[in-house]
Amino acid sequence: MLKEITLGQYYPGNSILHRLDPRVKLVGTLVFIISLFAFGSTSAYIAAGLVLAVVITLSAVPLKFILRGLKMIFFLMLITALCNLFLTPGDVIFKVWKLQITAQGVRMAIHMAVRLTYLILGSSIMTLTTTPNQLTDGMETGLGWMRVLHVPVHEIAMMMSIALRFIPILMDEANRIMNAQTARGADFTSGGLIRRARALIPLLVPLFVSAFRRANDLALAMESRGYHGGEGRTRMNPLVYQRRDHIAYGIIALYLVMIFLIWKYVEISLPFLP
Amino acid sequence: MEIKIEHLSYTYNPGTPFEKKALDDISLTIGKGEFIGLVGHTGSGKSTLVQHLNGLLMPTQGSVLVDGEDIAGEGYSLRQLRFRVGVVFQYPEYQLFESDVLKDVSFGPKNQGLSDEEVLARAREAMRSVGLDESYETRSPFELSGGQKRRAAIAGILAMNPQMLVLDEPTAGMDPKGREEVLDLLRQINRERNITIVLVSHSMEDVANYADRVIVIVDGKIRWDDSPSVVFTRIEELEQTGLRAPQVSYLLKDLQDKGWDLDRSAVSIDAAAQEILKALSVPGQQTGGAVEESGKDR
Amino acid sequence: MGREKIIEGSGLSYHYTVYDDEGRPAAKQTALDGVDLQVEKGQFIAILGHNGSGKSTLARHLNALLVPDGGTLYVNGYDTRNDTHVWEVRQSAGMVFQNPDNQIIASVVAEDVGFGPENMGVPTEKIWKRVEQALKMVGMWEERDASPNRLSGGQKQRVAIAGVIAMRPACIVLDEPTAMLDPAGRTEVIRTIRELNEQEKVTIILITHNMEETVYADRILVMDHGKVVMSGNAKEVFSRVEELEHLRLGVPQPALLAWKLKQKGLSLPDGILTMEELAEALEELRKNGQRGAVREL
Q1: Is A213 found in the same domain as A193?
Q2: How far apart are CA A111 and CA A45, in angstroms?
Q3: Is there a single domain that holds both residue A175 and residue A208?
Q4: CB pairs < 8 Å spanning A and C
């Protein structure tokens, strides 16, 4: 199960999305996420969903890969949905004992689930079509102005890209350690919550030790290859906006306007949605 | 204890685009007290096979019978199986986690549900048998040297008193002396306590020197299952599969091709030396002149 | 010889400080003890020693990751103790480490090879030229767009070597580059190192505990307790079987077998390193009949 997290895993390809400037993709993702929260209505969500579908098709990343990212937040979504469903006050449409479901609750639950799904899909598409290094570059160049505010942009970007590279390695390692401890009779699956939490110690301690060892090794390797922060670094793939990037910015702006208009003027009420 | 594997096949991620058949119709029997060398390329399926021996993986097809009982059978306790078949994974020192060595070695027996005294006795005995004395009991496993960590990790498995010990490349990354010490330890455990050993190794020399039986896996199938002297004389066939024979096998073959009259079944350095000396000492030619000769070369 | 010296170390010593439970310095442990090391341009030097003999500490000095407590070390003419030259030193002596995963920084092969030149401030077009050249030298150009996670251990190490070559170092220091690899990966890496040395004249310093890998070196230094205890070419070093075993090492199988046969009284020449050489020598003995006979059996 641990291996199935795709968030942050680059899927090699040469689609238009792969070739876009990472800054465009960052801004695009950001705009998309903001639009989800700012303009929440059934009509806007349908439109956003259609746009997302087009983007996913353009990326040429197999749908299976993209959807796997959703699996890991399934429980988060379920819990959020249940909370919304039962805890939102409003017009009661269903009541059992002390639990009541309101029309507003149903609406909230559905909206929240849709929002989370879109959010994960949107950011997965970005990370699947952008190498962590490009992402780092994008952040660093695109958000470079934040350095004025004493935000260590280069360092954050570097940390991000390293974290992304080592996530799959540490996942593998976790699997291996789990096997090794199971072979010593460790039981990760039975018992109550406290017992289970305690059973994780033989997994987590070696995992942390290993992570620190790797960090140490990597620091040495980086230093020996002349890394000394962002000062005086050149770029192998400097970011230069192409025509397609300008067009993409235009499309993003257009999207924002469109969603705003739809949210403001188009009412869709689905029969099963109160 | 006897493990009988019948027509075992294993497929990773069946029904997905990542489907991969790792083992294909494996049948073999591992008897009590054997010392088996398991050989094959990275990705040949050896590690997958190993994980079937203690039920970490279950066959996609076929069965694994331990003393006649199917491990996939309903109600079969895999946890009990894991105490009987100890598996030492690659780089086992990465599994150490306790604050001192004694506690870490006790982890297995504790999971077995033994009494505190018994856990302690088992752990101490295991530590002794890998050559870690009392002074190590209270030391942090993370402060030990690489070789000592490896021993501590092996002790952690031994403390469960397994009847079979399966080791995946136990000498990886160790220096020559360290390797020899670990392998000698395995031989000792095998001979003195009659524990079955399955040694997964890339070193044909180690397998030739220590194992009584060699199983060669190629692309998920058993290619050979015989004594080292039989398997390692098939130099050409081994090389066709991308493997090789121990270095002495090449020498003996070379000599035989040059017209020497010798038996090629020797696979260890000492046995080969004997064989060469025997072949050279043609009756009637035995003289004492050799010592002088060796002086002349300098 | 008038050849250019890449590395000149004399009387190098280094101590680790051991701390007690409260974090106070408790003891000093000697890791290097009076090591002299000279490496000339184009040489292939092997440093052999068991785990804990000080060989990795020495390697880290060559790259100024550590600086000596005593003695002097010049790398490509730069004194490693001088802080201002630290980046020149690091660029001069490129390091390849043991664990293939822990030294690859980027998620795409080509980008990783470009990491060093990027840090050095090399202009963009030139970075690509260097990356291409380096990857071609180690035979990994075809894999330039691959993710390192999809490569075998041997391939990862070749990428790491390319990453160092792209920095145009004066020499490459490899710290047990094969310790975590399978035999195929080991052969692959050693072959790459030899090719770089023989065809591209790259200066190589190979640190290892695997005797077989040092056979092709111009000179082998054997370390123990932070000292260089033996030095010479493979033929010289590997005739000293008993001493090597005493140092927790060993000798390549052919040398060991030759030595054992000699112990039994066979008059074999010194310096046998391969099974072919041993077979030749034995055949020679047999042809000469009586002269090569056995004393006892």
Answers
A1: yes
A2: 8
A3: yes
A4: 103
Helix %, strand %, coil % for chain A, to 5? 70, 5, 25
Which fold does the domain C5-251 belong to in CATH? Rossmann fold (3.40.50)
Instruction: Check CB contact under 8 Å for C149 and A133.
Output: no
Kindly report, residue by residue over C269-278, the tens digit of the pLDDT. Answer: 988 999 999 9
pLDDT (tens digit, 9 = 90+) per residue, B165-182?
999 999 988 888 889 999
Q: Are residues A77 and A113 in the same domain?
A: yes
Q: Chains with ≥3 Cβ pairs under 8 A against B?
A: A, C
Sign of CA dihedral C40, C42, C43, C46: positive
Containing domain of residue A119, as a range? 1-130+241-274
Contact check, Cβ <8 Å, C51/B146: yes
- The ipTM of this complex is 0.87
Same domain, A24 and A96: yes
Chain B residues closer than 8 Å to A186 by CB: 107, 111
pTM of this structure = 0.83
Are residue A125 and residue A255 in the same domain, yes or no?
A: yes
User: B293 and C52 in contact by Cβ < 8 A?
Assistant: no
DSSP chain B: --EEEEEEEEEESTTSTT-EEEEEEEEEEE-TT-EEEEE--TTSSHHHHHHHHTTSS--SEEEEEETTEETTSTT--HHHHHHHEEEE-SSGGGG--SSSHHHHHHHHHHHTT--HHHHHHHHHHHHHHTT--GGGTTS-GGGS-HHHHHHHHHHHHHTT--SEEEEESTTTT--HHHHHHHHHHHHHHHHHH--EEEEE-S-HHHHHHH-SEEEEEETTEEEEEE-HHHHTT-HHHHHHTT----HHHHHHHHHHHTT----TT--SHHHHHHHHHHHH--TT---STHHHHHHHT-
Tell me which of A130, A224, A227 to substitute to probe the interface with C (most C C-beta atoms closer than 10 Å). Answer: A224
Specify the number of domains making up chain A.
Answer: 2
Q: What is the domain partition of chain C in residue ranges?
A: 5-251
